[in-house]
Amino acid sequence: MPPRNRSLRFLLRPSWLALALVCIAFTYLCFTVLAPWQLGKNTKTSRENQQLADSLNAAPVPLNSLIPQQDSPTKGQQWRKVTATGHYLPGIRVLARLRVVEGDQAFEVLAPFAVDGGPTVLVDRGYVRPEQGSHIPPIPPPPENTVTITARLRDSEPTVQGKDPFTRDGYQQVFSISTEQVSTLTGVPLAGSYLQLVDDQPGGLGVIGVPRLDAGPFLSYGIQWILFGVLAPVALGYFVYSEVRARRREKEISAAGARPDEAKPAPDQPTTVEEKLADRYGRRR
Predict the structure, then answer these.
(1) What is the pLDDT of residues 239-277, one digit of tens each?
(2) What is the value of pTM for the model shown?
(3) Which conformational region is residue 98 in: left (phi greater than 0), alpha (psi within -120 to 50 degrees), or beta?
(4) Long-range contacts of the stretch 88-92 (C-beta < 8 A, 24+)
(5) Rounded to 5 degrees, what are φ and ψ at 113?
(6) What is the C-alpha to C-alpha distance for residues 32 and 43, in angstroms, rounded to an integer?
């Protein structure tokens, strides 16, 4: 076996094989799971921020132009400001519970709204604060006559696993604003998106503000995972190089120690395991 290959035989030891496998697995996760996860969240947040910024500057459009039919898709239209004329359906009382508005717990009040010449949509009327013991305060019903409302178009939320709807204080309560789930509970066919009322609207309650335009730390986190994926094999290579260099030095010292005039090791030569490791990989400061 060539001398260079013999000097690398230590890499076949279980400890070095395990270290190499851990390094390969970590690098693989960085590039295929962790970095794409954070970069994907950054892309989603940036897209939502752009939709929100566009909606703040755009004039409202008729809802029927975006959702002419009950099952019309509204992809990419979230936060778009719309107007709709129609009436609230009476007798339906649904709340979204465990919501947080301006840092405090709240109920969001939901009601179906039949649009004239269009679909029936779920309207988030706004929020109310729970009374002591998480009880529901008195909530004024929406107007019964035909009204025109202005609202923001919102995507339906996914249901919360393990959190089933229930009835309390005369209201059906859900844990997310899922139009499909509310449609099943009430027996009212609903469009796929829902409306969130802006201020000073018929049937409106406490106004739910729009989120802040903040991209968050996802881009920097994604770049960090990419750097970690690059540094892991570099660090492994450094340890291999340091081990080879240390073994060669030990071999030269052993060969020199076989001579009678060099039988004793140099006074500063490391003799313990701790000293050898510190000499190879650096001492703590």
Answers:
(1) 888 888 888 888 888 777 666 554 555 555 555 656 665
(2) 0.64
(3) left
(4) 88/112, 88/113, 88/114, 88/123, 88/142, 88/143, 88/144, 88/147, 88/203, 89/113, 89/114, 89/120, 89/188, 90/141, 90/144, 92/186, 92/188
(5) -135, 120
(6) 16
